[in-house]
């Protein structure tokens, strides 16, 4: 089965060169791009020069003087750090088949950027500069207190002292900083994000891959928000152990639908949510009592099981034994005859992810396979694991995206439901949710409503 993704359409390799003063969200943006592209099966990796600098300079914590461009000793260490990062990056491109690398550093002078540009050209890599420019002092201070005072550079240091030192570090960079310039840099591929994405300047974006990255970063925002996820309530088909179909909820599923408003209210308070459902009856029924605006998305429909739609796993094993085995062997890639694979679902979910990045408080009610794919994006779950994740019925999941990860809270409704989890190598459903040692799984019929937290 040919694997077709945006990464192999043009056989292009891109180096995204971050540009910007400290505390402008460069690492935040870099990590998000890597997570997004990896989710789309595009080999992507971030090379953070700060980490190389820490490795090379040892455990000693630098103060702002270390970043003074007149400090020759320190400058040598910093040059060495970026050289090591670039060397590793080139090795990754050449030996590991890398497609998109992010060079995460301030890259604040044109001299540095010309050096990287030249290296990229010599190695047939497309350089794309991505500058985060920001003069919102309140936001910068918030960024410092959110992520910088807790960085390894300031371990054990009083947050006020760390903040003052970090502001001094910024001023050292300001003294040499040369922003990208529409005239001087007119021949380069670049994107400038001004005050997050209040204004976006785009120059010479030439490849499809670059345009995907630009479109993605344009949609990012940093306002606090939460995303709630739930499977539909238990359906008649779930009880009959059948997959697919468009059945109604079972009596217990209807009970979950009745309880959902209270669960959501408890978790979201008075936040005004928008509910997204699929076009299938069971998600609409689950959402029926929710007092929020609702929107149906065809893209949220369950993975299409093709000729196996409406069968039990036992029937599939009996009628299509080869397919049954092939799916267990590679569940992410296996495409049902006349239906879809997990990879297909990820591709059709891309607009959902893009819209989720743009929006604030959304509750999604959808299906097991679709939820696995969405959850995998936020939690950076690798493809070989994501189709095997346990996402039980009658559980509300709250995701809170943070600077470098996502907090997760699972809230169980305390309404029993069958388990629809099928373990590898068996056609039985139902054992894993109750017995699995997998830390991601939760009992569907817990004795009382309780919360469980995890994070990336
Ligand atoms: P440094 O150069 O010191 O490594 P940095 O530019 O990489 O700093 P981050 O560590 O990414 O900065 O800062 C994370 C913070 O930046 C988060 O709190 C995030 O909300 C915020 N942020 C994300 N995007 C932007 C943006 N475009 N402009 C300003 N702040 C942003
Ligand atoms: O805070 C600035 C920082 O992220 C440092 O941790 C890191 O050493 C430096 O930027 C890397 O950028 P450059 O090599 O451009 O100074």
Can I get a quick summary?
It is built from 15 helices and 13 strands.
- H/E order of the elements? EHEHHEHEHHEEHEHHEHEHHHEHEEHE
List the ligand species.
adenosine-5'-triphosphate, 6-O-phosphono-beta-D-fructofuranose
CATH topology assignment of the largest domain: Rossmann fold
CATH homologous group name of the largest domain: Phosphoglycerate mutase-like
Q: How many whole angstroms does the radius of gyration measure?
A: 24 Å
Uncertain segments are 1-8, 431-450
Mean pLDDT: 92
Strand ordering within the main sheet: 9-8-10-7-11-12-13
* Oligomeric state, counting identical vs distinct chains: single chain
CATH C-level class of the largest domain:
Alpha Beta
Estimate what percentage of residues fall within beta strands: 15-25%
Report the count of strand segments.
13
Beginning-to-end CA distance, first to last residue: 33 Å
């Amino acid at each position: 089965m040919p694997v077709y993704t945006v990464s192999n359409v043009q056989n292009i390799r891109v180096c995204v060169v971050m540009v910007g003063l400290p505390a402008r969200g460069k690492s935040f943006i870099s990590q998000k791009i890597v997570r997004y592209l990896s989710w789309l099966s595009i080999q992507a990796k971030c090379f953070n020069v700060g980490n190389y600098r820490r490795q090379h300079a040892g455990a000693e914590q630098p103060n702002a003087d270390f970043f003074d461009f007149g400090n020759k000793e320190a400058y040598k260490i910093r040059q060495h750090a970026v050289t090591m990062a670039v060397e590793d990056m080139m090795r990754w491109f050449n030996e590991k088949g890398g497609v998109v690398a992010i060079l995460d550093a301030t890259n604040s002078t044109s001299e540095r950027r010309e050096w990287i540009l030249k290296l990229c050209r010599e190695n047939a890599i497309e350089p794309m500069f991505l500058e985060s420019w920001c003069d919102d002092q309140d936001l910068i201070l918030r960024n410092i207190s959110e992520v910088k005072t807790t960085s390894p550079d300031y371990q054990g240091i009083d947050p006020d002292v760390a903040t003052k030192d970090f502001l001094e570090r910024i001023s050292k960079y300001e003294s040499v900083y040369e922003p990208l310039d529409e005239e001087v840099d007119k021949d380069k591929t670049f994107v400038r994000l001004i005050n997050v994405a209040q204004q976006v300047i785009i120059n010479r974006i030439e490849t499809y891959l670059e345009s995907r990255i630009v479109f993605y970063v344009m949609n990012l925002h940093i306002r606090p928000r939460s995303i709630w996820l739930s499977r539909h309530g238990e359906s008649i088909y779930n009880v009959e152990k059948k997959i697919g179909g468009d059945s109604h909820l079972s009596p217990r599923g209807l009970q979950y639908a009745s309880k959902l408003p209270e669960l959501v209210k408890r978790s979201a308070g008075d936040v005004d949510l928008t509910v997204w459902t699929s076009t299938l009856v069971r998600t609409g029924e689950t959402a029926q009592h929710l007092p929020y605006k609702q929107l149906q998305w065809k893209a949220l429909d369950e993975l299409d099981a093709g000729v196996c739609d409406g069968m039990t796993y036992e029937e599939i094993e009996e009628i299509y034994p080869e397919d049954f085995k092939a799916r267990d062997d590679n569940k992410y890639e296996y495409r049902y005859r006349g239906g879809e694979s997990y990879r297909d679902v990820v591709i059709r979910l891309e607009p959902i992810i893009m819209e989720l990045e743009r929006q604030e408080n959304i509750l999604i009610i959808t299906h097991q396979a679709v939820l696995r794919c969405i959850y995998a994006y936020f939690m950076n779950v690798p493809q070989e694991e994501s189709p095997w994740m346990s996402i039980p019925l009658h559980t509300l999941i709250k995701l809170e995206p943070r600077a470098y990860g996502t907090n997760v809270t699972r809230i169980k409704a305390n309404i029993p439901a069958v388990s629809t989890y099928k373990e590898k190598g068996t056609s039985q459903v139902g054992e894993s949710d109750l017995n699995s040692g997998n830390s991601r799984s939760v009992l569907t019929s817990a004795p009382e409503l309780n919360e469980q937290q995890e994070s990336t």
